[in-house]
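A quick aside before the break. I want you to see a complete sequence-to-structure record at least once, exactly as it would be stored in a machine-readable document. Don't worry about memorizing anything.
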Amino acid sequence: MSDFNLNDHVFRLLQAEPFFAALSRRIEKKASTAVPTAGVRVDENGYFEMVYNPAFFEQLTDEQRTGVLVHEFYHLVFEHVTGRLPDELAGAMQGQATPEQRQKFKIWNIAADLSINFHIGAANLPDNCCIPGGKMFEDMPGDMTAEWYYDKLLQKMEEQEQNGEGAEGDRDSDGSGGPGGSGGSGPFDPDAAGQFDSHDDWNQGEANEATQQAVDIAKERLKEAVRDATQESATKGWGSVSASCRRDIIERITSKVDWRKVMRYFVKTSQRASKRSTPKRLNRRYAYVHPGRKVNRTANIAVSIDQSGSVSDSMLAAFYGELNKLADIATFTVVPFDTQVAESKVFEWKKGQTHPQKRYMYGGTCFNAPTEYVNKGKFDGHIVLTDMEAPKPKASKCQRMWMTTTRCAQRPYFQTNERIVAIDE
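That is the input. The structure line, written in tokens, reads:
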């Protein structure tokens, strides 16, 4: 394997591309000869990773290396890795697609590259990549969405079939042609399009429940990463990110999110893994000699509920309903509070239990009281249901998330880097 270390090159992003540099810190990079070039994917735990071939990067210029990194990160930002698909491909998996679907997947992958590469420029990418205005795509304008390119490419394929202009019949005698080879322009041929990165691990989330959960977690992590990178860019600059891309990015992070999914994501990322021996599972190394190991994931989450009247009954009912659903993957300790914690009313909410929607106190609000209570205990996470209309509390020893009304989420009483999520009333 080549001695090239991509992490050494990543430092170039710090000066040239502040937005992507901030994003890069959230992405693990793995050298591997199993891939010919590079690619991004979601691992089994819901983290993003970039796999790259050192030999491929070693032959590139510094500008091209930066361009490839930016290309891969754009795929993440625009959710190409986590299931952004045309309607007719939604729910389909590349690895189990029909021949017609496989062809459409190829076209979608090319469309995604076209939408990205326009903003990077051919000079900053490996030779013969898919780019609007380049070979095979001379009639394609720049700065369009992946969906737009996909529709136009499908239309072009249909017109070629109707006119009898099959791509195979129009190749040069030496077999070259299209942007992936050295031939001139010709009919659109998805198999000849020049793609320097792998998209093979995209759109595999529905293979089983575990992988779908990993993708769901990755989506939430991505939103947080993009949100943080956007905040940094406000002071350090956006680098090469165009105005149209900035608008798209900002729109994505400010769009309405499903608070239930965010809450599930918070619980899952708070879980601890424990292993125990079990004869029901084979030991992979010493089958029938030693028992296997079973991994259990659990979380003990503190849920502080503001007792002030500004937390409506409907909001409380929706929140309780979600606690009941999540009790199969975590144990919740419900902590009622106003200016102090009602310790005699604290209770655990476990799987199979139901609890009435009830208020115990009607005073003011002080967030230090539940924070101190939670900090004294052994909790993996802390959720606070409140209107947020009180001074900023002390720091939490475990990760903390605020769930509040839409109005309060938009204009919180205090500033915090912790997650604030609006619950639909």
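Two observations worth writing down. The radius of gyration is 26 Å. The chain has two domains: 6-254, 259-272+300-422. We'll return to this after the break.
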